[in-house]
Design goal:
- 49% of the residues lie in helices and 23% in strands.
- The longest helix is centred in the first third of the chain and has 72 residues.
- Helix 1 packs antiparallel against helix 2.
- With 261 residues, the chain is of the alpha+beta class.
- The protein has five helices and eight strands; from the N terminus they run H-H-H-E-E-H-H-E-E-E-E-E-E.
Length: 261
């Protein structure tokens, strides 16, 4: 389109030159001059119309591109919303579906591993300390017991300690952490107590499932000992309950638990 306009302008220039040149001729050339003027006027009109057509085409193209971009943006937003809703649905049901699809034998194996994790976690919080301590910085409780400063980043209160403990144990599980951790001056301190384990303890086995649902499982656990606390003789086994709750994301938390050693 731009080449057509340039050609028209060039033709205008040539005709204009011809007209000017013709002004020096005799009166017999008047008919030719009139014809050339008509051609010049037609050419100018054609060039003007061409410019208007080109402007209209550019405006139409811009409007079409804008409408296409808007439609594409709307489609992408709708697809994104559908994907998000699908992900949320999957997150909500994943844990329940996983438990519902597992056999008792598979759940017992999972229960065995989680029971051992619960034992290790409870032991680490009650015997010794799971955090790094500064033994040169201490605080005392009302009974005169000495506690040591926890220096781990992000652990500055009893609530922080409980939050870590609740990575394994349910919030509904009663704990005694307030007796072995102490808040003071905007920091938290640990008692760091020590004790020996039951020397007669030989192991625990998650033996059976006594109750199961999409929201929780109760296991029976058999704790075995090589002798009693009085004579060190007479091996025995005690059966206790161990229960877990299942969160929406499928993770487990211990609800009913007793450290067997």
């Amino acid at each position: 389109m731009k080449r057509k306009i340039s050609g028209a302008l060039a033709l205008i220039f040539m005709l204009t030159s011809a007209v000017l040149s013709g002004c020096n001729k005799d009166e017999g050339s008047e008919s030719t001059e009139s014809s050339e003027a008509d051609v010049l006027e037609a050419t100018v009109t054609e060039a003007s119309e061409a410019e208007e057509t080109e402007a209209q085409e550019e405006t139409t193209e811009a409007e079409t591109e804008s409408e296409t971009e808007a439609e594409t943006a709307d489609e992408e937003a709708a697809e994104s919303e559908e994907v998000t809703e699908s992900d949320n649905d999957n997150d909500t049901s994943e844990g329940s579906e996983a438990v519902g699809e597992m056999s008792d034998a598979e759940l017992i194996a999972e229960g065995q591993a989680f029971f051992e994790t619960a034992c290790e976690t409870d032991w680490s919080f009650h015997v010794g300390c799971p955090y790094t301590l500064d033994y040169s910085s201490t605080a005392e409780n009302s009974l005169g017991w000495q506690f040591y400063l926890i220096t781990d980043e992000g652990v500055n209160s009893l609530a922080d300690v409980i939050a870590d403990y609740n990575e394994v144990f349910s919030e509904s599980y009663a704990n005694d952490l307030s007796e072995i951790f102490l808040e003071s001056g905007g920091r938290v301190y640990a008692l760091d107590g020590e004790r020996g384990a039951d020397i007669y303890y030989t192991g625990s086995e998650v033996a059976a499932i006594t109750e199961r649902s999409d929201s929780g499982i109760t296991f029976s656990v058999e704790n075995s000992y090589s002798g009693d606390d009085y004579t060190g003789e007479n091996p025995y086994t005690e059966t206790v309950e161990f229960s877990v709750e299942i969160l929406e994301d499928g993770t487990w938390r211990a609800v009913q638990f007793t450290l067997p050693y």
